[in-house]
Design goal:
Elements: H1 16-35, H2 39-46, E1 57-62, E2 67-71, E3 77-81, E4 91-94, E5 103-107, E6 112-116, E7 123-127, E8 139-144, E9 150-154, E10 160-164, E11 167-171, E12 181-186
């Protein structure tokens, strides 16, 4: 008959480095469980990377005016004072199939996508599935200007998003900060 061990088990001693590594792993796992996205995927989504698994909404605030890109049920796009509760100011990137970095920018409230209308280069919002979602006037990407300012570029022209006196337009010759945006995550 085998002998039965009767001594109490001794606790395993762990180094400070081992404890720090365990803490980092637990923190990362907790972040993934809570948000559904890895920290790298969340940061990448702001720059247009399609690797994020959870829907992340963004607000686009114009550097010059301080107002946010806002849509209306009619499809009109205007600049309005930023409001943290306004779903009409929340956008997310979709259509990761393109390899050139351009994607659809879909509004949370209307479910419509930002599109250059073609006449006077005005911007509006339209059904994201129009033309199979492949219409280049509906595809956008961010271009980092410095550490915090972006320009939003259209695939068709390729022109940049810029507010005008009675709407939002795209322009080939952006003027200073009027074509620059700060992009903030909205959760």
């Amino acid at each position: 008959m085998p002998e039965i061990e009767t001594r109490a088990a001794q606790p395993r001693r762990r180094s400070a480095k081992s404890l720090a590594m365990s803490s980092a792993i637990v923190a990362a796992a907790g972040y993934i469980l809570i948000t559904g996205a890895t920290p790298a995927a969340s940061a990448a989504s702001a720059s247009g990377d399609a690797s994020a698994s959870a829907v992340i909404y963004w607000a686009f605030r114009n550097v010059l005016s301080g107002d946010c890109l806002t849509t209306y049920a009619s499809g009109a796009i205007r600049m309005q004072p930023c409001d943290a509760d306004a779903k009409a100011q929340e956008w997310h990137w979709i259509n990761p199939d393109r390899t050139d970095g351009y994607r659809l920018l879909k509004n949370r409230w209307t479910g419509k996508c930002l599109r250059m209308e073609g006449r006077e280069d005005r911007v509006g919002s339209y059904d994201c599935d129009a033309f199979g979602g492949n219409l280049s006037t509906m595809h956008w990407k961010t271009v980092l200007m410095d550490g915090t300012r972006y320009r939003i570029r259209n695939a068709y022209a390729p022109d940049y998003l810029q507010p005008g006196p009675d709407g939002v337009y795209v322009t080939h010759l952006p003027i200073g900060d009027s074509a620059n945006w700060r992009i903030a995550r909205r959760d």
